[in-house]
Amino acid sequence: MRALIGYVRSGEPDLTNRQMALLMLVYLTPGPHTVRGLARGLGVSKPVVTRALNTLGTLGYLRRERDQDDRRNVFVVHTSSGADFLEGFKRLLRIDSEGASRQGAGFQPAPARTAFAHG
User: Which pLDDT does position 94 carry in this prediction?
Assistant: First the structure.
């Protein structure tokens, strides 16, 4: 939970789950990455990936690059800004997990509330 709060307070752009999944897929799996392959990997359509790539490209986190061998192919590649963003997010997760481990193994999240809980 602290990681998410830290992320919100960081002033970094709010990414959707889809954008974050796409970003992590590109950075954590071997390439080359294409829109078609990324769509297949995420189980979504190519237009969905294209919209997410447009946003991530505007933020400077990913870049489209034409294949020099076959100019018809376009690859999705890393950027230093994207790597910096994910490194900062990783630090937040590490801080959160270290805090959770200090609380001990007995820590349990609160039970989920439902609309039906009050009868």
Answer: 83
